[in-house]
Amino acid sequence: MTVIIDGSPVEAPAGMPIGALLHARDATLRLTGDGRRRGLFCGMGLCFDCLVLVDGREAVRACITPAADGMRIVTGRP
Ligand code: FES
User: Fold this and answer.
1) Could you tell me the distance, in angstroms and rounded to a whole number, from the CA of residue 62 to the centre of ligand 1?
2) What per-residue confidence (pLDDT) applies to 78?
3) H or E element in which residue 21 lies
4) What keywords were assigned to this record (predicted)?
5) Residue 25 pLDDT
6) For residue 2, what are the β-bridge partners?
7) How far apart are CA 56 and CA 59, in angstroms?
8) Mutate which of 38, 49, 73 for ligand 1 pocket (most atoms within 8 A of beta carbon)
9) Are 28 and 52 in contact (CB under 8 A)?
10) Residue 9: predicted pLDDT
C-alpha cells in the first residue's frame, strides 16, 4: 500500500494509524500558532496534538486514523 506524505510516496502497512507512520518518520504533525512542533501525545484521540490534512480534510487526528491506499497526508501545518 502507498500513501502520499507531503507529496512523496511512502510504503505503509494497510490499516496502520497514520500517526504511527508519521512518528516513525520523525515528522512534525502540526505547528502551533507560534511555530512549535507538535506530534503524537496521547495517541488515543483525546489531545488533538496530531492534527494533519488528509485528502483535503482539515484537522484529522492522525493517531486514530488508519492509513489507506492512495491517501494524501499533509503535515506541519498550523
Ligand atoms: S495524539 Fe492525542 S489526539 Fe492524536
Assistant:
1) 7
2) 87
3) helix 18-24
4) Oxidoreductase
5) 93
6) 11
7) 10
8) 49
9) no
10) 98
Q: What's residue 35's pLDDT?
A: 94
What's the first-to-final CA gap in the chain, in angstroms? 28
Query: Residue written as cell 489507506?
Result: 68
| pLDDT above 90 for 2 | yes
Three cell numbers, residue 45: 484521540
User: Beta 57-61 vs 30-31: how paired, if at all?
Assistant: unpaired
From ligand 1's centre to the CA of 69, what distance in Å? 22
**H or E element: which one contains 8?**
strand 8-11
d(CA 51, CA 68): 17
pLDDT digits (tens, 9 = 90+) for 20-63: 999 999 999 999 999 999 999 999 999 999 999 999 999 999 99
Statement: the pTM of the whole predicted model exceeds 0.85: yes
